[in-house]
Amino acid sequence: MINFNNNYKDNVNLNIISFIECKCYWYDNQFTVLCSKFFNNQYLLIFKSNNTSLKIYYFISLTFIEELRNIVKYGITCLRHYFYMKINNDIIIISSLDNSIKLYEIKNNFPCILHIKNAGDNGDVFYYINSVLILNDNNEDYIVSSNKTDDYLKLFSIDGKLITDKFCIDSKGIYYIISYYSKKLKLNFIIICNNIKRYIKSYLFKNGIQYKYYKNDVFSKNIQFIENNNRELMCFAYHNIIYIYDFHENIIFNKIELNQNIRLHFLLIWDEKNILSFDEDHSIYIINIDEKRIIKKLIGHTDFIYSLFKIKINNNNYLLSQQNNFIIIWK
User: Fold this and answer.
1) pTM for this one?
2) CA distance 29 to 299
């Protein structure tokens, strides 16, 4: 989460320093790259190397560590990193087209410590899990998953036992879910993006009851949060508009409407003043929040961009941008 302050300096002078090959041809690749700091102070880059396998590298040296081959029957749809307090170690959680959820421990040989089979409605490849996450509430860890053909989310214990298959009632088309902990209310929330009904909603995790209905006729591929003067703000993009909502008041705090005829579905909060996004022209755009305009355009991709990922190491900011056959690393 970004905290706004008055000591801002422009720091968006990004240049390509490296790239790494991958083979990802599935539409949901925006959830299948991560770069994170793990318990041993090592930064790892983990990504979908093909539809059923993961590759793991040391970052920034890009030294190869391991490939987890054929860990699912069909395509991986979501990949996230968490610290699992029960085993005092880092794990990654994945979901896939085969309706399974798996947890892998980050240590030698990367053992699978949990496999939930048929976590979706059935084993049909077309009814797959879109998104999965782990959430800690009152010192207990839970798994939440979404299936775009279902009317509900599913809630599991961290041991893989189904608690309820009717969590956070919604409607078919749930594409993307994230969790958010409100420091203001000291409560956990689940946020849903529905790409059929085209809206964004939030739910209280403690009871699964709807909290707010934010925007209709919107299809956003990700959501990010920022703080501004004790206000908790939610940001998302749709076509040529970036919306910044007060999460609790459900009002528009800021709206950036770009003059260009572009289609933004993904955004990355870079710093206090700048947002990164991309269009179907294979370019990355740097958008200044105060000026409400595109101030830079990064060129280097040759195909549609799936995702943007930021990692900060020793006061250096790195940007990872992914297309179907490689990941570009910017600094």
Assistant:
1) 0.90
2) 20
